[in-house]
UniProtKB/TrEMBL annotation:
SMART domains: S_TKc
Name listed for the protein in its UniProt record: Protein kinase domain-containing protein
UniProt keywords, alphabetically: ATP-binding, Kinase, Membrane, Nucleotide-binding, Serine/threonine-protein kinase, Transferase, Transmembrane, Transmembrane helix
Taxonomic classification: Eukaryota, Viridiplantae, Streptophyta, Embryophyta, Tracheophyta
Protein kinase domain location: 109-376
Superkingdom of this protein's organism: Eukaryota
CDD domains (UniProt xref): STKc_IRAK
PROSITE patterns named in the record: PROTEIN_KINASE_DOM, PROTEIN_KINASE_ST
Keyword Kinase annotated: yes
Gene Ontology MF: a single term: ATP binding
Gene3D superfamilies in UniProt: Phosphorylase Kinase, domain 1, Transferase(Phosphotransferase) domain 1
InterPro entries: Kinase-like_dom_sf, Prot_kinase_dom, Ser-Thr/Tyr_kinase_cat_dom, Ser/Thr_kinase_AS
TM regions (residue ranges): 6-30
C-alpha cells in the first residue's frame, strides 16, 4: 500500500507535466499553421510607404500609399503564375470595375474609333455615357500570350498607382466576347508618334528632358516602391504615353513580372533594339535590363532616331568623337534645329551611355541614380531661368504610334 501511495505521489506530477507539454506543443503547431495560412493569403506587391529618396519624388503618389481596393489580390497573382485561375476571378479580386460589353461597343461606335494597335490587339478611343473619355484595348481571344497580358495588367495595374504609370480603370470579360482593358485616355498619344510623325511639331528640348524624368520616376517606383519589385520588360517609345499636358506615363505591362517570380524563360520577350545584351545571352532579366532599355530611350529622345534603324551605330561613332572633348551635340535630333542646351544634352547623353555601354549589368546606374541626375539637370535650369523649383515638378510641364516595333512575342506567333 505504501508503494502504491509513493507511486501516485511521484507519478502524478510527472504525468501532469507531460500532459501540459503535449498540450503546449499542439497549441504551437496550430498557431504556426494559422500563421502560414495568413502569410500565403497576403503575399503582396505592396508599397513601402516611404519617400523614394530623391528630390524628384516628394509628391504624394511617390510615397506609395496602399490602395484600399486591392487588399486581396496577390494570392491570385501566385495562382495565375501557376496557371490555376480564371480571368474573371483575378479581375474581381482586384476590385477593378467591370464594364458591360454593350457599353464599350456603344462608346467606341461599334469598335470603329481605332487609335493604335498593340502586339495582341487594337486600341480604341471611347466616349462613355458618364462623359469620360477612355482607351479600350481589345485582346485576341485565341492568343495565349494575350490572356497572360490581360491577367498581368489587371493584377499589376490594379495594385500599383503612380502619376507616371498609366491608370487602369476597368475591364470587360463577358462570355462569348473578347476580353478588354479600359485605361485613362492619353490625349497626346505615344512618344514615338511625336518623335517620328513629320506632321507633328517637333518636341522641344525641355519637354524631352521632362519626359525622360517622368519615365525614370515611373520605373523607379516599379523598382523601389513596390515589394517585391516589378520589372517592366518592354520599355520603348511606343509604350510611353503623353497626357493633355504632355506629362509621360509608362504603359503596356503585358510582359511585366514581379522580380522574384521571373523564371528563366526559354524564349526572349521584348522588342528588338531595346533588349539588354546580357539578357539575350543569359535569358535572365533584372532591374538593370530595364535600365538598359531606358538608356536606349534616352538616346532616342536625344537623337530622334529609331533603335531599329541604326541608332546604336550612330551613337557609338558619336561616343568615339566625344572622348575627352564632348561631341554629343552631333547626335542631336536635327528637328531641334540647334535649340537645346549643349551642356544638358552632353550630361544626359553621357548618362544614357552609362546605361548601355557596360556589358556587365551590375555596373550600370540604378533608376534611383538616373532620377537624381535628371532631377538636378532640371533643377539647375530652373535656377538659371529664375523659375521656382518645385521638387515634384522641377521642369516645365509638358498616342497613336505610326511605326510598330517588331517584338519577339509577335515573331513567335
Amino acid at each position: 500500500m505504501e508503494d502504491i501511495l509513493w507511486g501516485l505521489i511521484i507519478g502524478f506530477p510527472i504525468g501532469l507535466v507531460l500532459g501540459l507539454s503535449i498540450w503546449c506543443c499542439c497549441c504551437l503547431m496550430n498557431q504556426k499553421t494559422c500563421s502560414n495560412t495568413k502569410i500565403k493569403t497576403s503575399f503582396p506587391i505592396q508599397v513601402t510607404g516611404t519617400n523614394l529618396g530623391t528630390g524628384a519624388n516628394s509628391d504624394s503618389t511617390s510615397t506609395g500609399q496602399d490602395s484600399p481596393r486591392t487588399s486581396g489580390w496577390s494570392i491570385y497573382m501566385i495562382q495565375w503564375l501557376e496557371g490555376h485561375i480564371k480571368r474573371k476571378n483575378v479581375a474581381s479580386a482586384c476590385g477593378i470595375p467591370n464594364y458591360a460589353f454593350k457599353d464599350l461597343q456603344s462608346a467606341t461606335l461599334n469598335f470603329s474609333t481605332t487609335i493604335g494597335k498593340g502586339a495582341f490587339g487594337p486600341v480604341y478611343k471611347a466616349h462613355m455615357e458618364t462623359g469620360e473619355t477612355v482607351a479600350v484595348k481589345v485582346l485576341g481571344t485565341n492568343s495565349v500570350q494575350g490572356e497572360i497580358e490581360f491577367l498581368t495588367e489587371v493584377v499589376l495595374l490594379g495594385r500599383l498607382h503612380h502619376k507616371n504609370l498609366v491608370n487602369l480603370v476597368g475591364y470587360s470579360t463577358e462570355e462569348g466576347h473578347q476580353h478588354m482593358l479600359v485605361y485613362d485616355y492619353m490625349s497626346n498619344g505615344s512618344l514615338s508618334s511625336h518623335l517620328y510623325d513629320e506632321n507633328r511639331e517637333p518636341l522641344r528640348w525641355d519637354l524631352r528632358v521632362q519626359i525622360a524624368l517622368d519615365v525614370a520616376r515611373g520605373l523607379e517606383y516599379l523598382h523601389y516602391g513596390a515589394v517585391p519589385p516589378v520589372l517592366h520588360r518592354d520599355i520603348k517609345s511606343s509604350n510611353i504615353l503623353l497626357d493633355h499636358s504632355m506629362r509621360a506615363r509608362v504603359a503596356d505591362f503585358g510582359l511585366s513580372r514581379q522580380e522574384m517570380m521571373i523564371p528563366h524563360p526559354s524564349k526572349l520577350r521584348g522588342t528588338f533594339g531595346y533588349l539588354d545584351p546580357e539578357y539575350i545571352s543569359t535569358k535572365k532579366f533584372t532591374k538593370k535590363s530595364d535600365v538598359y532599355s531606358f538608356g536606349v530611350l534616352l538616346l532616342e529622345l536625344i537623337s530622334g532616331r529609331n533603335p531599329q534603324q541604326g541608332l546604336m551605330e550612330y551613337v557609338e561613332l558619336a561616343a568615339i568623337d566625344a572622348e575627352g572633348t564632348g561631341g554629343w551635340g552631333e547626335v542631336a535630333d536635327t528637328r531641334l534645329d540647334g535649340n537645346f542646351d549643349v551642356k544638358e544634352l552632353t550630361e544626359i547623353a553621357a548618362l544614357a551611355y552609362k546605361c548601355i555601354i557596360n556589358p556587365i549589368s551590375g555596373k550600370r546606374p540604378s533608376m534611383r541614380d538616373i532620377v537624381q541626375t535628371l532631377y538636378w539637370t532640371c533643377s539647375r535650369r530652373n535656377q538659371t531661368q529664375n523659375v521656382p523649383d518645385r521638387a515634384e515638378e522641377p521642369c516645365l510641364e509638358l498616342d497613336i504610334p505610326l511605326s510598330r516595333e517588331r517584338s519577339f512575342t509577335e515573331l513567335e506567333r
